[in-house]
Amino acid sequence: MALYEALYGRRCRSPIGWFEVGEAGLIGPNLVHQAMEKVKVIQKRLKLAQSRQKSYTDIRIKELEFEVDDWFYLKVSPMKGVMTFGKKEKLSSRYIGPYRISKRVGNVAYDLELPQELATVHPEATWEAEEDMKKRYPHHFETGEIPVQ
């Protein structure tokens, strides 16, 4: 007697024993055709759901615009293994500031009034993707501590 049979009181059923002898014709042109039809239906429904979500998001989205003399916080991206403001990783500050906008330079560019501690940072700030900025200006993303006011 096998261990499985002794433990459960019946023989072990393997995937080989699940099918009857006459059931071997599972794969054929009909099955492939049905699978392709199901894939088309799923793709159509996904596209419909994505378009619904996009239209909902497009209605609710608002562009960020600031005026001169507005106050705001600068976002500081936490880097793994880097101590910022005396704290490491998750506990490090996400934002520093507040700082004042002194002048609007373009649609998405502003001149900032930064304190002396941040003199190495360029006073003009824009809304651009961080990864693009890191590729173009890697020297601005060198690790270092920025003191908090």
From TrEMBL:
InterPro entries assigned to the protein according to its UniProt record, in alphabetical order: SH3_Tf2-1 (IPR056924)
Domain Tf2-1-like SH3-like: 70-122
A Pfam family this chain is assigned to: SH3_Tf2-1
Top-level taxon in the UniProt lineage: Eukaryota
Name used for this protein in its record: Tf2-1-like SH3-like domain-containing protein
